[in-house]
Amino acid sequence: MKVLVVGGGGREHAIVRTAARAASVQEVICAPGNAGIAEEARCLDLDPHDAGEIVHAATAESAGLVIVGPEAPLVEGAVDALEAEGIPAFGPGAEAARLEGSKLHAKELMAEAGVPTASHVVLRSRREAIEHISCASYPAVLKADGLAAGKGVIICATEADARDAAAVFFEERRFGDTEVVLEEFLEGEELSLLALCDGENVLPLAPAQDYKRIGDGDEGPNTGGMGSYSPVPGFDPDEVERLTDQVHRPVVAAMAGRGTPYRGVLYAGLMLTPDGVRVLEFNCRFGDPETQAVLPRLRSDLVELCLASRQPGGLAGTEARFEDDWAVTIVLASAGYPASSSKGDEITGLDRAAAIEGVEVFHAGTARSGDAIVTAGGRVLNVTGIGADPAEARQRAYDAADLIDFEGKQMRSDIAARAVERVVG
Ligand code: AMP
Ligand code: GLY
Q1: What is the pLDDT at residue 151?
Q2: In what order do the strands lie in the sheet with 153-156?
């Protein structure tokens, strides 16, 4: 079978590499891919936002499965368009993907399903914002309703900050003509819990932790994610099942009840507060960079699982098995990220890094320029170290990440330090 992976970041590189290991797969194709993906899969130059182009490519290639990586094509209906032409596609349809596409919709669904989340009010206009901001308690959080590439969340320490944030949403219109959620600030540790869903059943994947801020010690602005690790100390399979019962299963049941069954990956961003778990957000896809730490540990056949999740009840009796090891992923970002990014700088040391035992290098924002591989985006590379314990995995990841160089390279030095402390001491 041929598998077509849509997207071109580090997550898609990890999906391409994992799909290539599947027993039934003859060839993996990626669209549009990047310089690293192109070394292991044929890449097609198409616009992932154009569902017509995706359907055309999948038909021309007789793809037996299309895996859609990023949220935007999912929310725009890529899976509906593929399935309408009889092409098996992994991911939710547009209606189900609104769980990520609209924070208000997600809040409504959680209320209906009895899933714990931060309390909130909706701000529909600047006038409503001013009214609610003056009586909120602080810190508080303002979020754009729609997709904002991880940038639409502003944490406000004070009422004055919230007024400034309201101006960003309602005057500057940085995130377009969107409604805004004002929600309670939650404190605790974050956990990314991804699960495969078939509209009825929920099969949790190994838990992961993501590092959202640019700087060590969680300082500085939010990013798309600067590192991750998996599994997470304290979250054994029983605890993961318990969280899935509280969060994913009620949502999947509520969506089935509404006639919009959820199929694909349901990613819950959780805050583990002293009062119990709360959902921060849902994503309708694999997380980035969590996937680069989770999929290298997967021992089950990813393609079989993706195909099973398309059928109502198809995941019943299946298993997502993981190696009993640890993975730590370091993100290497370009100069200026997250405010801006630098392009065209030559990257060196890739082969030496990948040659280290237990290391996998995934490309995110890279491009080829003649014989060289150059930077082509904010998050450039993801370096995953795999080891018997978090210390070994972390050491391998950093040894490899240190060998890679490009102008203005940024990386955090504390990824998984907490896991090492907890497990190894
Ligand atoms: P989201 O895109 O909604 O997951 O928000 C991005 C990041 O902002 C989260 O991973 C948290 O670090 C932070 N965040 C979002 N909502 C809250 C909240 N209610 N309380 C505290 N931090 C939050
Ligand atoms: N790692 C966060 C995300 O994928 O949205």
Answers
A1: 75
A2: 120-123, 180-184, 140-144, 153-156
Instruction: Provide the residue range defining the domain that includes 49.
Output: 2-93
User: Is 246 contained in some domain?
Assistant: yes
In a domain, 216, yes or no: yes
Distance 319 CA to ligand 2 centre (A): 24
For 341-357, write each residue's pLDDT tens digit: 889 999 999 999 999 99
Residues with CB under 6 A from ligand 2: 150, 210, 225, 283, 287-288, 290
Task: Report the CATH number at residue 382.
Answer: 3.90.600.10
* Smallest CA separation from ligand 2 atom 4, residue: 287
- Return the best residue to mutate from 153, 212, 213, 283 for the ligand 1 pocket (most ligand atoms within 8 A of CB): 153
Cα-to-centroid distance, 288 and ligand 2 (Å): 5
Q: Which of 99, 107, 141, 285 to mutate to test the pocket of ligand 1 (most atoms within 8 A of CB)?
A: 141
Give the model confidence (pLDDT) of 107-122 as tens digits.
999 999 999 999 999 9
Does residue 155 sit in the same domain as residue 212?
no
Pair 226, 302 in one domain: yes
Ligand 2 centroid vs 62 CA: distance in angstroms?
31
- Which residue, 258, 286, 310, sits at the end of a domain? 310
Residue 319 domain flag:
no
Closest-CA residue to 209 (of 85, 91, 144, 294)? 294
Backbone CA torsion sign across 17, 22, 26, 31: negative
- Residue 282, judged by CB atoms within 10 A of its CB (0-12, 13-18, 19+), counts as buried
Residue 6 resides in a domain? yes
